[in-house]
Amino acid sequence: MIQIWHDMFYPELPILEKILRPIIVYTFLIIGLRLAGKRELAQINPFDLVVLMTLSNTVQNAIIGNDNSLTGGLIGAATLLVVNYMVVRFLYRHEKLTRLIEGESDVLIEHGEIQTQNLQTELITLEEIEAAARRQGFSSLTEVEKAVLESSGTISFMRKEPSSEELRHSELLERFEHLIQEMVQIRTALIPPQ
Question: 7 versus 22: which is more confidently predicted?
Fold first, then answer.
């Protein structure tokens, strides 16, 4: 019984090493994901999702080392949470540094026109942006005025506003429908019931 408690709570690695390992892995992942691009954050296709899922398993041993103790795992997890809290807090006050780390947004559709070069730069296919538009309620890209790949990896879509001609056409159709209904009511009133 004593051995179980010992194995569970006694870390095999020095505590300083248990703290430094997650910090190094955290820093590496931040830089790696930044270099990989916003696409990795968006998890646009199954391949990217698999990479993100296996990435966590790949760096697990780098974080905990040969230590399988509960204390070692808690120290690693606590270190990650504290480092993330400090980084987020620090970046909140330093907007320029945040933009450097997170990157800038990229316009994928501008004035209804697909920006092919930006799609190629971000490695996003036309099918992927169409699927993202459908998930946000657009039946096709013809309804999209602007699409932006945010630094967080999400794609924001803005709907096209109807042109003045389309508004006028719609208004005329409504008036025409109203006139037809009035004519039906007048005919019904003029024709005597049989």
Answer: 22
